[in-house]
Amino acid sequence: MFDRIAPRYDLLNRLLSLRQDVRWRKKIADHLPNKDELFVLDLATGTADVLLTLFQETNHIKCAVGLDRARQMLEIGKKKSLSRHYPCYFLTGDAMHTPFPGESFDVITIAFGIRNMLDVSRTLEEMYRLLRSNGRVLILEFSLPKLRWWRKLYLFYFRNILPRIGGVISGDGYAYRYLNQTVETFPYGEEFCRLLTRVGFSNVQQISLSGGIAALYLGDK
Fold first, then answer.
1. How far, in Å, CA of 205 to CA of 69, rounded?
2. Residues of 83-110 as b/e, b for ≥16 C-beta within 10 angstroms?
């Protein structure tokens, strides 16, 4: 599905979020660990927007790896990275079963991908295994607003307008109906924080973004 929508993926992210997705990714960079020569892994990297944002926002990254199962998405990410000469490497693979040895990375990120995993807890366990001591996981994901009027307005847009626009521009109506279905059923907020704590992460935090439309979750090892 993600390979089918790859050519229009970046355009639709900007359009459907009114460019809020750009601001949300910059929030990830704001919460990187305070140390130099970071080794970063971005899971479900897609077209590599997270990695490109991190390199643009900080000079503390020594090397970064993007992993995804969608080959067409990765090809776009590779081209974008090469044009900027960033030290990024891309690999086709499954976030639940990565090929890396334990304690390989200082930072692991994933944006709008954790809810697509077949086993969320297994994916979080893999992240914990891959992190070095004092490493940090940063997870950006859609959420649902708490304010009743904002939540009602958001859900109307999410259920009725976003799928139509996304379907017309991408040519894949199912992909954008799938989006709202997975967001509404995903364990967000305190429930997701409990999942992170259960796996072993400490100092778990949730940062609400854009009135609760999205959330950034932090956890340390």
1. 28
2. eeebebebeebebbebeeeeebbbbbbb
Query: Is 82 within a domain?
Result: yes
CA distance 98 to 87: 20
The DSSP 8-state label assigned to residue 171 in this structure reads S
What one-character DSSP code corresponds to residue 14? H
**pLDDT, tens digit, for every residue of 115-153?**
889 999 999 999 999 999 999 999 999 888 888 899 888
Q: Whole-angstrom Cα distance, residue 40 to residue 64?
A: 5
Please tell me whether residue 105 adopts helix, strand or coil conformation: strand
Contact 196, 217 (CB under 8 A): yes
Overall number of domains in the chain: 1
Domain annotation covers residue 32: yes
76 close to 47: Cβ distance less than 8 angstroms? yes
Residue at 119 is within a domain:
yes
Q: What is the pTM of this model?
A: 0.90
Residue type present at position 190: E
The rounded distance, in Å, linking the Cα atoms of 77 and 2 is 13
Phi and psi angles of residue 67, each rounded to the nearest 5 degrees, phi first = -125, 135
